[in-house]
Amino acid sequence: MSADGDIMTTTVTKTTIESNAYDNVVAYIDDRSIIADPRDPDGYSKRPFVYDVDPLAKSLNFGDFPYIIAEYPMVEYSSLSADGKTKNIAWKMSLTVRTARAGASQGTDGKGKQDMFNICDDLQNLFNSDTYKQQFALLNMFFMNLTKTDVSSPIIDQKYIHQSDYDLSFNTRLKVSD
User: Which of 26, 65, 68, 91 could link 100 by a cystine bridge, Cβ 3.0 to 4.6 Å?
Assistant: First the structure.
């Protein structure tokens, strides 16, 4: 089932507290009409753009840039009902955006800065837009809040990259058992 008809999402339920929450966030950030990939803005090549683990841990390939890492969510419970069957659930996910300083086309220095700002602005729009907030609410995911926690420009293999780190938080009140 899709909340908006196009993006494949599924409502968070008592049996899919972690999986659907994660999959729904990834479905939105991996949609090129929402978060444009500077290397492939129309999404024709279907190259990986969102990863669940850091691709740099495996090998260094500047052709992979830019990309987003969406880490698995941390889950916290609070405000239990008297019988313990309903709880407030809060999720927190780390998102990392990386671009090469030379940009998606490995062209001139500074192009990567524009790639970074474009992706980051798209992320801000996604989680601040009333339209998308309503779509997430239909999935049992409320109060989406994206907080930028760090910005850096590390050097890897004698080349600069740009990195922005975010924490995404959201919550709901959900019946967790019968």
Answer: 65
pLDDT for 2 beyond 70: no
Contact 164, 112 (CB under 8 A): no
Residue pair 135/4 in contact by the 8 Å Cβ criterion: yes
Quote the DSSP letter at residue 73. P
- Tell me how long the chain is: 178
Distances in Å between the alpha carbon of 132 and those of 32, 125, 139? 15, 9, 11
Q: How much is the pTM?
A: 0.89
Segment 124-150 mean pLDDT: 97
Question: Could you tell me which CATH number the domain at 19-175 has?
Answer: 3.30.70
Tokens of 110: 């500074």
Cα–Cα distance between 58 and 40 in angstroms, integer?
Answer: 23
Cα torsion angle, 166, 167, 172, 177, sign: positive
* Dihedral sign for Cα atoms in the order 33, 35, 41, 45: negative
Residue ranges covered by each domain of the chain? 19-175
- Nearest CA to 27 among 44, 54, 5, 42? 5
Determine contact, residues 19/93, Cβ cutoff 8 Å.
no
